[in-house]
Amino acid sequence: MNKLEKLTPMMKQYMDIKKNYSDAILLFRLGDFYEAFFEDAKVISKVLNIVLTKRQNAPMAGIPYHALDNYLKKLVESGYKVAICEQMEDPSQAKGIVRREVTRVVTPGTLIEDEMLSTENNYLMAVDYFDGTFHSILVDVSTGEVLVKEFESLSSVIDFLRINTVSQVICPESIFDDLKKEIPNLFIEKLNDWYFEEAEKKIKDTYRVASIDHFELGKSLRIFGATIKYLEYTLMVDISLSAPKKIEETDWMILDSRTVENLSLIPGERGKNLYDILNKTKTSMGARLLKKWILQPLRNFEKIMERQKIVEAFFNDRLLLNEVREYLNSIYDIERILTRLSYKKATPKDLVSLRYSISVIPNIISALETNEKLVEFSRKIKTFTNVEKLIEKAIFEEPSNTPGDGKVIKDGFSIELDEYRQLLTHSSDKLKEFEIKEKEKTGIQKLKIGYNQVFGYYIEVPKGQIKNVPDYFIRKQTLVNSERYITPELKEFEDKIMSAKEKIEIIEKKIFEDVCQEISKYIPEIKQTAELIAQLDVLTNLAYVSSLYGYTKPEFSKNKFLIKKGRHAVVERYVSNFIPNDTYMDENIRMYIITGPNMSGKSTYIRQVGLITLLAQIGSFVPAEYAVLPIFDRIFTRIGARDDISTGRSTFLVEMNEVALILSKATKDSLVLLDEVGRGTSTFDGISIAWAMSEYLYNEIKCKTMFATHFTELTELSDVYNGIRNLTIKVEETNNGVVFLYEVIEGVADKSYGIEVAAIAGVPGGVVERAKEILKVITEKSELEKKVRVLKEGQLKKLARKSKISKDQISIFEVGENN
Ligand SMILES: Nc1ncnc2c1ncn2[C@@H]1O[C@H](COP(=O)(O)OP(=O)(O)OP(=O)(O)O)[C@@H](O)[C@H]1O
What we know:
Blueprint: H1 9-20, E1 25-30, E2 33-37, H2 38-48, E3 53-55, E4 58-64, H3 68-77, E5 82-87, E6 100-106, E7 123-130, E8 133-140, E9 145-151, H4 154-163, E10 166-172, H5 173-182, E11 187-191, H6 199-207, H7 221-235, E12 245-246, H8 257-262, H9 274-278, H10 284-295, H11 301-315, H12 318-329, H13 334-342, H14 348-359, H15 361-369, H16 375-380, H17 385-394, H18 415-442, E13 448-452, E14 456-462, E15 474-478, E16 482-486, H19 488-520, H20 523-548, E17 555-556, E18 561-566, E19 581-585, E20 591-595, H21 602-617, E21 626-629, E22 634-639, H22 651-665, E23 670-675, H23 683-701, E24 704-709, H24 717-720, E25 724-734, E26 737-746, H25 754-760, H26 765-781, H27 784-802, H28 807-818
Parallel strand pairs: 1-5, 7-10, 9-12, 10-11, 17-21, 20-24, 20-25, 22-23, 23-24
Antiparallel strand pairs: 1-2, 2-4, 3-4, 5-6, 7-8, 8-9, 13-14, 14-16, 15-16, 18-19, 18-21, 25-26
Helix pairs in contact: 6-7, 10-20, 11-20, 12-15, 12-20, 13-20, 14-17, 17-19, 18-19, 25-26
The structure holds adenosine-5'-triphosphate.
């Protein structure tokens, strides 16, 4: 006999279903529990810390049905895929074994349940390699957003994954191993060939359109079709998505993951970050959008101005700003409510939240109309009075979350429903009267009416009073201390109550579905307005923080780069007295070498320049007294030394990889911020690399560069090239040690004060004194400075002439020489 034949029909049913979901944990609904068996049981008992028991010798662990979401969240967060198998019929009505089916496969990237999501975006990224390019689709199922993006290399895919909130990747088998190796901690699943078949048809069916040419999917079509199939496989309903948007690199400033981390743009390992400082948005939709804007500053002047004008209008009209932000306060996460509506998972409370949210839209519009600079924006926002009215009429102010229990649909919305509800209340009153009457009739004072699933309504009589029970009481159950009875009259009540309850359940569910269905017709339009509300939230937020933190409106110029009294947006919030500093660059002055002691504020200074340009390009005001800025295509950063343990690359190799990236990708419109290059190797190698790199950036690429370094030798570059200048940071030597003044001035650091900083940091006095002695000896012996001078005087000239240098470079070179 084979093993399965020995199993009970229920276990056989389990095994049959599990066969199709072997890569997931199967939660099998059994009465009031979801049970897992065999290996699944062992896993969930460990992950969820619940008891592992046995059923017919099979390991089993179960979770109560009402606590599913909590447990699911834990399982998915721990990296498991979970298939939920439901009972498809009422067990009391079922003939034979209850029919069961999997109704949902839950994975980290396909969540729509509010309790399982944070307010952040939750992206599923589908990646395909096709015709030499990586094509990807990013979907946030919870908001319906779809983005299309191409990558030239695997490393750029990985880089993108590092800075975006992608919780799951799906890909064809051909690239699975490569991706898995690079992102071992991310949930990643391979798609077999079937997913890629008939992609175009799948997309057309999903969007209910005859042609998808306007989506301009190109070679991303295959992976988009596969993504939709995967979503259908997990959500098991028709998929509802917004139209795909292409992410074109030319629209946005490119920020690689290193730069995002080095400038501490979003929450991450470094703690204090720009997003947290700026985020005072009023809605979850706004908070998500703000993060996107920070990660994708604009490059198009008109688009930047469009945002800046709105920020300025609010900045100059604080009363209006406060009024609009007050309205935004009462707006819920409409995007997610709409998604749940389209997946038929919206709750009555969702509808009430939607109603409150859309009810303030007319106020927002009238407020915006009072300012002529905001009228154009206000015209794009639509009102949805009919939707608001419908919800107001149909749904209780504080409904229960279970349509069918009679506490969702308002009185007066359906005559039929009201009648049954009255009948129910009436019968309940009658039941109470019946209890009193029976007490009087029988003299059993402790008699009470109760209810259970098996017998329905019953009369309970304590054992001591059984002798008074009349003949028409029919005994149904004996308990330790009491007996339970029914009577024909009680049964009659029960029938009435039960049929009223059943009817209420059917009618209320149907009305709720109809209301949802009616509202669903407006989803695309409401979605557009929700997007505008999110934008409004971010724009008012920028105006608000700009006034709160004393930012000013930046101007843009093709050639000039001037920051007067600039501040570091994050550091200034944490130090008591932040010292502002200026920055000036133009077509000629393109590079600064910044030397100064440790802890003097070099990194803060160069990062503040990066943050100011970034803020300006997202449309915000900036932390400076005055700023005229060019529009940069990209900010590059190379900051600090560190290993990349995950890929086994040494500090120096990581550093050189970053240098290589900058040298190959930077353009004349880029801003390059360098903090320590060449520290990971010997001093001579380090200086040589840093020198050669600076020359290349200055002569060949002609980008704007700020280079903070401890190699004072590099300051000699300014003698060779007129457009390279030196900056240092003021320190004062007092009897009690060095005092950092954080003031950036022209010049070169005369000392590095490393030993003084060591003393401040608490290195023992003996060690500090010995270090001073050693420094004296080696400084005297150092040949380095002499050698660099030789380089400056002779060899550089030769080198520069050998390399292909254009006329203007030679002139700069010669100006430098004459200096
Ligand atoms: N302009 C400023 N005004 C006030 N405090 C500042 C300023 N700049 C920096 N600081 C303070 O000095 C600290 C050190 O600054 P920063 O890390 O920029 O120094 P650094 O010169 O780059 O140091 P190292 O060479 O050791 O990397 C900052 O954390 C901040 O507290």
